[in-house]
Automatic annotation (TrEMBL):
Coiled coil: none
One Pfam entry name: Isochorismatase
Lineage: Bacteria, Bacillati, Actinomycetota, Actinomycetes, Kitasatosporales
Protein's UniProt name: Cysteine hydrolase
Start and end residues of each Isochorismatase-like domain: 10-176
Record's keyword terms, sorted: Hydrolase
Keyword Hydrolase: yes
Record-level Gene Ontology MF annotations: hydrolase activity
């Protein structure tokens, strides 16, 4: 579903743009993803809309067919990148699973700010972004996904999420579509 409108209280959720993730091989140039997320951050902040910055600092302990390795992150791995220009009013969420909503209190914090809609960007499309979008949808938030402001380690997984999953749970478009729709609210 294309981007149609924004609720009065829409929040931007930026997933896992942190030192340990932006440096790994990705399907799209990370500088483009960071630049688009930064443009959205600037606009949301200028309009007094809530901003959520998410980092990941672990993983669930359950076994998977892919196996589980100990997670020992180097110093600075979980730190948010400077380009996000973290502000005192930003909500910051550290997650230990794929979704920013799992055991973080994010849904309650957003509701405390009367948020009814979220725009989600970040890395990785098929993991942190998709899991956060699915949870947001199931928690009753309207979800908007600027698909050019996210990427994955694997292009096929990125494209699968965009083509097969996102249209079922969200409105999708580009960063410019989001910026234009926010402009139309003025």
């Amino acid at each position: 579903m294309p981007i149609t409108t924004f609720d009065d209280r829409t929040a931007l959720v930026v997933v896992d743009l942190q030192h340990g993730i932006v440096g790994i091989p990705l399907a799209h140039p990370v500088d483009d993803i960071v630049e688009r997320s930064a443009a959205l951050l600037k606009t949301f902040r200028s309009r007094g809309l809530p901003v959520v910055l998410v980092n990941v600092a672990g993983a669930p302990i359950g076994r998977t067919d892919a196996g589980r390795v100990a997670l020992n992150f180097p110093d600075g791995w979980t730190e948010l990148i400077p380009a996000l220009e973290r502000q005192p009013d930003d909500l910051v969420v550290t997650k230990y699973s794929r979704s920013a909503f799992t055991q973080t209190g994010l849904a309650e914090r957003l509701r405390d700010h009367q948020v009814t809609q979220v725009v989600i960007t970040g890395i990785a499309t098929s993991s942190g972004v998709e899991s956060t979008a699915r949870d947001a949808h199931e928690q009753g938030f309207h979800v908007t996904l600027p698909i050019d402001a996210m990427t994955d380690t694997d292009l096929a997984r990125h494209e699968h999420s965009i083509r097969e999953i996102f249209p079922r749970i969200a409105e999708t478009g580009t960063t410019q579509n989001v910026l234009d729709a926010l402009s139309d609210r003025s």
